[in-house]
Amino acid sequence: MTDSPFRPFDSHLDEAGALSILREAVAGADDGELFLERRRGESLVLDDGRIRNASYDATEGFGLRAVRGEVAGYAHATEISESALRRALGTARLAVGSGGGVMAPPPPGTNRRLYADADPMRGAAFTAKIDILKEIDAFARAADPRVVQVSASLSASLQEVEILRPEGLRLRDVRPMARLNISVIIEENGRREQGGTGTGGRHGLAGLLAPGSWKPMVEEAIRIARVNLGALPAPAGVMDVVLGPGWPGILLHEAIGHGLEGDFNRKGTSAFAGLMGQRIAAPGVTVLDDGTLPDRRGSLTIDDEGTPSARNVLIEDGILTGYMQDRQNARLTGVAPTGNGRRESFAHIPMPRMTNTYMLGGDSDPAAILGDLKDGIWAVGFGGGQVDITSGKFVFSCTEAYRVRNGVPGEALKGATLIGDGATALRQIRAIGNDMALDPGIGNCGKAGQWVPVGVGQPTLLIGGLTLGGRETA
Hints:
Blueprint: H1 8-11, H2 15-26, E1 31-47, E2 50-68, E3 71-77, H3 82-93, H4 126-143, E4 147-164, E5 170-188, E6 191-201, H5 206-209, H6 211-229, E7 232-233, E8 235-243, H7 249-257, H8 262-266, E9 287-290, E10 311-316, E11 319-320, H9 327-333, E12 341-342, E13 351-352, E14 356-359, H10 366-371, E15 375-387, E16 393-405, E17 408-414, E18 417-421, H11 422-427, E19 429-432, E20 437-438, E21 443-447, E22 450-458, E23 461-469, E24 472-473
Parallel strand pairs: 7-17, 8-15, 8-24, 14-22
Antiparallel strand pairs: 1-2, 1-4, 2-3, 4-5, 5-6, 8-23, 9-10, 9-14, 10-11, 12-13, 15-16, 16-17, 16-18, 18-23, 19-23, 20-22, 21-22
């Protein structure tokens, strides 16, 4: 493992030569760049007291892009050299054709730093990390004799990015990431149930490895498993739903956020296409995508095209005010890029993606919101979900939910799914809590085969008339 920083124009390429090839690639194009990346990461997984997986990965490479109109030519390689760049040149130029484009202006510069450059993998010795995972296992089993299985995983990575623009502008970003996940299974009377928690962000491992951090996580995982042990089959039918703060914002991310990405709206395939300036949500609903939050999982100093991240207001008091844009879609629709051009790695082309997407808090007391629920569901935790961008229809599974009658939470529910569509759900928000919270730092987002880290958040919400999928009629 090397401590030396990734400086490709010192160790791999002559800058003048690379710039000459880049300019040849984008001659007559509207945009383009050379994206260089090195990524190093490690992962440790303990399962039932034994290390099941220990891995260290290191990759580096480049992506060369030329953009003309709606078409992009892209070539990538794991060999960073002038000869590899020249081989990529022909592929990139396929998008340019006969040319005629006018090069888009470069992104503005920024001196802002949202996270440290320190390598999170250096936070503790390898053996110390294993010892902490074993401590987690022992602590969980001692906390409840019904614990029959414990899984804990640690991961950390450092992504170093250098972007060369045709104007000669060089942009650099160093992005740390760390994460801890804990899962337990409890057994009682032949029934087994699971509970899990996780946390992370763009910071080192030191804070995650402290007992004051992981012990409450173990206790929370056990609490969720205990709740699920007593859970009853969820009812089915149309019901009012109270969503808890924080991680339930994943529903907002999937059902609404993707529909506000610039490419889907430019192509008219989003349920929100053509609605700029119109009311699409209940009064009081304000939704942001904010890549400028320090140390958050979805935050970026600059995006993967070099545009500084921003605090973008998407919906303000129920009115659609903005979409998330990369450079290509912004240019094609005559607006400014918003710092949302993201890619999984050098092997992928950038596209409009979310960073940290959340709804601002309102002025309602969360306890009062729950107390006003006459007959419905209180959904506190979510698992996986699916959404259709064109229709906005979504299906989400609840990992922790309760039946509520006359404002009083009752039995825990198992197998509950929420079904609806984003546009309708936005309009049916009846109360917004004053307890906006962000997720603990565990989000990943998939789009077109690419995965990137994201953040979500929201306050307690009351949404009327969602369809609840379950095993019994409500």
